[in-house]
Amino acid sequence: MTDVACDVAVIGAGPAGLAAATELRRRGIEKVLVLERDTAAGGRPRLCGHPPFGLREYGRVLSGPAYARRLTADALAAGVEIRLGHSVAALRPGGRIDLMTPAGPAILSARRVIVATGARETPRSALMVSGDRPAGIMTTGSFQAFVYGKGIVPFRRPLIVGSELVTLSALMSCRTAGIEPVAMIEQRARPLARWPLTLFPHLLRIPVHYGARIVDIEGRAQVESVTIATADGTMKKLACDGVLFTGRFVPEASLVAESHLVFDRGSAGPSLDQFGRCSDPVYFAAGNVTRAVETAGRCFREGRQLARVIVEDLAARAPVTIVTVDLTTSGIVKYVVPQRLTIGAGRPARINLQLRVDEPATGTIEIASGERVVVRRRLAAKPERRISLRLDLAALPPDASALTVGMGGGPACTSGCGKAAKPGASKGNEPGISQ
After folding, report:
1. Are 234 and 240 in contact (CB under 8 A)?
2. Is the pTM for the entire model greater than 0.85?
3. Boundaries of each FAD/NAD(P)-binding domain copy (predicted)?
4. How far is Cα 138 from Cα 30, in angstroms, rounded to an integer?
């Protein structure tokens, strides 16, 4: 067993991790080490052989592999050390990490640790889909690894399950590989991706069934057919040779769940403050491990911003915590990130909260301290779409120790409510909601 030491260890070489590592080096942090269990850096984009990636980061549209190569090249040029084939076995208090490396087990000691392990799709087994278990059943990630990573076409006429943004990525990959999906189904009554992106399957002349679910999968060596229940209860049998489950992402946070760090069941990721700090102040997190799921570009920006926070933290210039305020959710609000506010000298005037809902919702979103509503905004939201809400810390009662985020219908707003905002109206430093 060998011992390794560094200033900052980054777990995960995706957009968030590489952006954070690059920014840390550019800001003078001496030894930055990126740990990646895979054989190549770049994260999920390296297996998405289509655009658009990188427009905001690099001012040009790149394919996923080109974007991953650019992220990796920037990190290496900045002096980041990327260690491939290094799996983290456990996170220990104070920045000690148990590793499995190609040379054997090792222990890493870091002054700060960034968890940037991303997210993963929900497979068939977790969705409790019944039927036979032949070849040809997979998630988008596995499918794209076959097509772009190995040059293998696993099926020719699959059924596509889901309607998220990643579903459209799967359709683009199908088109690239000459695959013709027989249909696309979504269990909800409406698509989860935004219009006009939802027009894409129609442009490809792929039948779409909303309010439909899989009842049975049949096949021996390979998938042969799938029976679905449509919105009106009709059973329909579709001949196909594969089933592609897309979306329903969850954070890849098993390391956090099995560690000493506080795990948030709502987001299924680490519990964080507004600076991205975990319950152990040596540990931070960024990207889709904090909540599922955002674009590569957004994760890149989160990683870069977190690096700036850590530079201040290492230099002992970070605000000293005076008060901690816990954030919880109620009703159909699925989660809120961050899960706590650490308030001290030099605190920022506004905090950006990320929310999502389980069901379509129209009404008001409220942040309450006990019986006292401190923020209220009008809202029209759909499941699995980001809701951003800016909270003015000046609106909090001096004695606030906990806040609840939920849909309206409670007591009258007593302070800091301001004017109602429409989804998407939040720009710059304006308070409000955006999706």
Report:
1. no
2. yes
3. 7-303
4. 42
